[in-house]
Amino acid sequence: MANPWFVYLLRCNDDSLYAGITTDVQRRLSEHNEGGPKSAKYTRNRRPVKLVHKEVCKDRSSATKREMAIKKLTRKQKLELISD
């Protein structure tokens, strides 16, 4: 079986939220916090970032679809998702 994919939400230093997908959440979190070329442009100037939510998905396609759905949520809805 292939590695599962994850959708994750980060809380940035400026209190904004960032959504992404990966197969290795801890590695990706480290990349975001290092701020190098593998970090997202959005998080590079908003470090440190903290993992506040993650979901397991069966494959990359479902992870991408879930990420897009999360990105369409309002901030209030994202905060409600985090608090569950």
TrEMBL record:
Start and end residues of each GIY-YIG domain: 3-81
UniProt cross-references to InterPro entries, sorted A to Z: GIY-YIG_endonuc (IPR000305), GIY-YIG_endonuc_sf (IPR035901), UPF0213_domain (IPR050190)
Gene3D superfamilies in UniProt: GIY-YIG endonuclease
Pfam families listed in its UniProt record: GIY-YIG
Domain of life of the native organism: Bacteria
Family: Belongs to the UPF0213 family.
Protein known as: GIY-YIG nuclease family protein
Annotated organism of origin: Thalassotalea psychrophila
Higher taxonomy: Bacteria, Pseudomonadati, Pseudomonadota, Gammaproteobacteria, Alteromonadales
